[in-house]
Specification:
- 36% of the residues lie in helices and 20% in strands.
- With 163 residues, the chain is an alpha+beta fold.
- The strands form two sheets. Strands 1-2-3-4 form a four-stranded antiparallel β-sheet, with helices on one face. Strands 5-7-8-6 form a four-stranded mixed β-sheet, with helices on one face.
- The longest helix has 23 residues.
- The chain is elongated, with a radius of gyration of 22 Å.
């Protein structure tokens, strides 16, 4: 899995979280369609104009949120890079994957380190994974499936450390 695929220089991600799903854009219009069917089946008044307008408005509000989530909250780990949002960190710069904090009352140093990506902190619904870089700096990676990301990163960092 660590080399290029048959298609050329494209590598298969070892870990991937999309950040957002396009199906979210369809939820509002689907709800409006269900409402329209219920109105047709049960009542004398059918909102032929209002429900489609509301469906378009709901999809219009959801679309930029999904685009932003896919851009800023997605995670991709390949054998060469860890991408968190729009920031990429070469895997060979990672010296160690730090263990989770054992004591919630006494946070580890990495828990206040800079968060990878252009966001000010770990995104909501994600869990931080501490990383020590080759220069001695600490950063926080993050993912919904933090244990899966931690396992993949540990595998990559241990493979890199072996001669």
């Amino acid at each position: 899995m660590s080399g290029p695929s048959a298609a050329g220089d494209i590598t298969v991600p070892l870990f991937y979280e999309p950040g957002g799903h396009w199906r979210t854009v369809a939820y509002g219009p689907l709800l409006c369609a269900v409402g329209l069917v219920v109105e047709i089946a049960t009542g004398p008044v059918v909102h032929w104009v209002a429900l489609p307008v509301i469906a378009v408005l709901l999809a219009g509000f959801a679309y930029p949120m999904v685009v932003a989530a896919k851009r800023h909250v997605s995670v991709e780990l390949t054998p060469a890079t860890l991408r968190q949002g729009t920031e990429e960190l070469p895997v060979d710069e990672i010296e160690a994957v730090l263990p989770p904090s054992a004591d919630p009352w006494k946070p580890d140093r990495w828990e206040s380190a800079r968060t990878l990506g252009e966001l000010s902190g770990v995104p909501r619904g994600r869990t931080a994974v501490g990383l020590r870089l080759r220069g001695g700096g600490l950063v926080r990676a993050w993912a919904k499936n933090a244990d899966g990301l931690r396992t993949r990163l540990e595998d990559l960092v241990s493979e890199e450390g072996t001669p």
